[in-house]
Amino acid sequence: MDLATRRQALLTENLANVNTPGYKRKDLDFNLVLDDALSGSAAGAFPSGDQSETGRGEVRADGSSVDLEREVMALAETELRYQALTELTGRYFAGLKNVIRGGR
């Protein structure tokens, strides 16, 4: 959930700078973070590249790499991911609570 929050902050920063000439897009890639976490890499949980450019996309004539449609779509995806994580976390703790109570 922390990574979803961090990604949302980066994406909103991108949107705030959509008309800034030369601004380079910033993002976190959940798939890379997940791969690092599953491989046991310590860097996977909180990548040092919080503010790194993804390297994807095209640069506009003013030098900016921010695409409004892509940012809005990424924000929606991040919001859905966060909602799903919140729901799963709630269910996990409800299950633990049920076990502690002895199934009553």
Give a structural overview.
This protein has 104 residues and is mostly helical. The protein has one domain (1-16, 24-45, 66-104). It is 55% helix and 0% strand. The protein contains three helices and no strands. Helix 1 (2-16) runs antiparallel to helix 3 (68-100). It is elongated. Residues 43-55 have low confidence and may be disordered.
How many beta-strand runs? 0
| Structural classification | mainly alpha
Q: What is the percent of helical residues? A: 40-55%
**Arithmetic mean of pLDDT:** 81
Radius of gyration based on Cα positions: 18 Å
Which features does this protein show?
104 residues; mainly alpha; 3 helices; 0% strand
Summarize the structure.
The protein has 104 residues and is mainly alpha-helical. 55% of the residues lie in helices and 0% in strands. The chain contains three helices and no strands.
